[in-house]
């Protein structure tokens, strides 16, 4: 099935695109290969049914699931999600992301998230993107800092991840502070 690349991949090492029904196997392998690397920060789909349900969820109006693909290898290397998209007076989405363990630490996640933020602000028309990150997840906190996010607060037992309620720092970026 043909896919549509989103963003300018000519000058970047990655591009983003919406998932298709055919992507579930490649996503599942990425998730399984990277499961230990992501623990305890995220809990990606780890079986066929969950991967297919994720791809279906990406069709919802309030959820923008994007695959980060390596430009030269045309391979899925990560995921960026804009969840709970609100319009009207709020114009906000919650940002989540993760990368394949084999591509971590190369700056590719930053490039993919930049493309997703561009899409959030200039295609979806959002005003604000918020990332909630566990305080111990220093690489993720450093990533959003590099992208210009501002720490807004701390939420105790904010999200239940891997069966435990976990504290999170709240980081946000508005369109006025982007770029």
From TrEMBL:
Pfam families from the UniProt entry: Acetyltransf_3 (PF13302)
GO cellular component, one term: cytoplasm
GO molecular function: protein-N-terminal-alanine acetyltransferase activity
Record's keyword terms, sorted: Acyltransferase, Transferase
Superkingdom: Bacteria
Segments forming domain N-acetyltransferase: 14-176
Family assignment from sequence similarity: Belongs to the acetyltransferase family. RimJ subfamily.
Protein name (database record): Acetyltransferase
Source organism per UniProt: Aliterella atlantica CENA595
Lineage of the organism: Bacteria, Bacillati, Cyanobacteriota, Cyanophyceae, Chroococcidiopsidales
């Amino acid at each position: 099935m043909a896919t549509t690349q989103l963003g300018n991949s000519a000058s970047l090492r990655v591009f983003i695109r919406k998932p298709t029904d055919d992507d579930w196997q490649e996503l599942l392998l990425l998730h399984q290969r990277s499961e230990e690397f992501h623990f305890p920060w995220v809990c990606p789909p780890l079986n066929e049914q969950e991967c297919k349900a994720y791809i279906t969820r990406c069709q919802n109006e309030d959820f923008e699931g994007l695959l980060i693909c390596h430009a030269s290898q045309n391979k899925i290397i990560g995921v960026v999600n804009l969840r709970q998209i609100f319009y009207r007076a709020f114009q906000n989405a919650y940002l989540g992301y993760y990368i394949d363990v084999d591509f971590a630490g190369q700056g590719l996640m930053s490039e993919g998230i930049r493309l997703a933020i561009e899409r959030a602000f200039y295609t979806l028309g959002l005003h604000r993107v918020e990332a909630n990150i566990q305080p111990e997840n220093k690489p993720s906190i450093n990533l959003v800092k590099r992208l210009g996010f501002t720490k807004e607060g701390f939420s105790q037992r904010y999200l239940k991840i891997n069966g435990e309620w976990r504290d999170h720092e709240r980081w946000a970026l508005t369109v006025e502070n982007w770029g």
